Amino acid sequence: MAEKILNSYETIFIIDASLDEESVTALKDKFISLIEKNGELESVDEWGKRKLAYEINDKTEGVYYLVNFKAVSEFPKELERQYKITDGILRTIVIRKDA
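Above: the chain sequence. Below: its structure as tokens.
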């Protein structure tokens, strides 16, 4: 059986700052555990509440998280799909880092 090759990725997601603290933590935990189940979590960097560069859905602030992880090449598509169908997520990006 061939060994699965893990690539390094970085994702940033912005959670709606108008949500209560409990909801923000629940959303963060949801995505962190999804990444842990499907890859190797390297680091989670909470940037906290910041003003958005421009309004998104009439919102001016968001809670930013930067996550570094390793996963198989199919996982980022699933992660992006989960981001899109989750209420409370304002913006996301997943980037493959060069080795």
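The chain has one domain: 7-96.
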